[in-house]
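Posting for a labmate who doesn't have an account.
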Amino acid sequence: MKCRDILYDPRYRDFQERYYDNLTRYVLDNCQYTPTWQQLEFLQAVEKPGCRVAVSSGHGTGKSFLLAWALDWHLRVFHFSNAILTATNIEQARSVVWKYLDEVIDAMDTMYPWMKGYFIKETRRYYAKPYKDSWYVLPKTASKSKPENLAGQHNINLMILADEASGIDDAIHGVLRGALTHERNRYVMTSQPTRPAGHFAEAMTKLAIESGKKEGIYTAITMNSEESPIVSKKFIAEKLQEYGGHHSPEYQIKVLGRLPDNLSGFLIPRQWCVQCQSAQIIHQEAYGYVLCCDVAEGVHRDSSVATLFKVSGPREERMYEAVECHEYLDLNEKDFARAIAAKYHELPALTIGVDGDGAGRTVILELEEMGIPVERIHWGLPCHSDAEKNRYFNLRAYAHCKMREAIFTGRFKGPSLKKFVEQASRLPYRIDERGRYQMTPKDKMKSDGIKSPDISDTCCFAFLLDYIPAEDGQKATVERDRFLELARARLGETS
């Protein structure tokens, strides 16, 4: 008859002794996969009593797999132990790590059938029966405003795993580390290095233990996707293309697992902005034109800007050439709409995009009253596809990053204006806690002394618009006639 309590099972003591402070043996003995050299480095660091470990990781290196094995090992080997899993997005961390934990439990049940039923996994807790409230693994988090919600956790055998650690507020790190009162307590952080500052960044740099250095707290490990045996060359090639090459901060963070080279805080280097003004753009025959318009708010503030681009090619290979850029100071919305209308009548296949927020709404209405089709640009909205939502905070970030990529690959010729260089080279951004590009809000830019980048904004608008090929006269005519009918209907006229 099976014992109800594993502490009274005579087989448990031998199990404990074999794996006591030996996570590496635990995985090698019981996992059907052979750990990579990077994973072995993690296992050997975490198994040390009292360890402090920081792991900066790229895509696909097996980080979540390691966290699941570490949690299972800690629960089964150390009786009355506690382990806490925390992250910026605890539901996502729980779903990912919990998924791998299911696989680990299945493997352990296969290796040790006698142990099945002693450890119970629920949606929000993994524990030893019958010690649900004293011997467990618990996913738990706290808000920035109430970091103390994580306080009060103390145990001789306590392990805290902080996933997505780069995005965890330092106040929360402070509370978590405040629980490490026993010499055996373990603190493990894993993350993509999305933030150049904060406790995780410091753990990977100035707080890291280095050979020949007396000071240091953390064993700092970098799990580079390019060097991982379980990451395919095809995947790396795809990410190189998707993220825009080795120079891309996104590639350096998400693949190389390290802080990017460019820590200036600005998205596009000034040299790139200067060089793109002399780029040689060779268009395909089926080219078209897009007119991108930014409307000034109020009087004696920014200029209204209209930038005309000649464009060609499919979306990801599209060529952009700024052929005109006009600034209008103190021009009211109606007059600005008339200037745009004049360009439309000059180029009937023209695609017009206008900032649809603020004063831009008036310009759009004026153009539509004239029967001129307009694309409304609301770039504060989220991106359309899930893949883009995972990379860009909103359409504004998407458009800016696409302009940077086009400049880097020689597909973009910017306006021949000094203002363009000044604006495009001073676009502050950050990588948020989810690894997404996020442009600094306009009000924050203003408070930092950065003027509104109206010319640069119109250039970015081009990446949110499609174009009508100039040779497709029929399509352009049909589109124009459709909007004329709409305009007449509004005025109560009949054709």
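Reply:
Got it, the structure tokens are right above this. The chain has two domains: 6-231, 270-485.
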